[in-house]
């Protein structure tokens, strides 16, 4: 991922509140379009112009060709409060962040995230790198807000169950690992939508922890259809199970790895 600065020049007098509102609107539009990553975007006022620092999945993520209708509308709104459209300066590549998928035509996708990931939750099924969301057709209402909100909820549940400090741990774990959970239902609806738009299979990652023992764990069946789904070799050294019928992948219980 790449660190970039967005510089907003003022061409007429404005107020701090009006400028702040317009910049936040644009930042949210870029985020929900997958052009910037993360949840915190510091903005400073310096010598009469505003600078917002963002993280982008690719060096050209902020190119106008990637803009959604909401981004274009938000850019137009800047003029109403006396701001010019932002100048983009790429600071450099973040050495701690994931790279991005470069496949022109991935054969499949995987919906996967964890509480420590800030990148796209959609991974390429060929190289297991995060796919910039603007590389696929918009999911709903012109962008990917639905998918990013699902990611936020999944990560919140993951953080709670990892911390294990409250009684919320077990309901959170159910959301991550049960095919009857609301989180699973929402995620599978998103997978089906992306499959429809891209004509490519999209696998849903079902978290797995617990189990009786390693032997029983290795023999467990698909929780959705009851079919055999154990792989001879782990997929990307992470997924020990895959059901092509139900489009689900999972890991051997973390208790036995």
TrEMBL record:
<protein>
    <recommendedName>
        <fullName>Zn-ribbon-containing protein</fullName>
    </recommendedName>
</protein>
<dbReference type="Pfam" id="PF10071">
    <property type="entry name" value="DUF2310"/>
</dbReference>
<dbReference type="InterPro" id="IPR016908">
    <property type="entry name" value="UCP029037"/>
</dbReference>
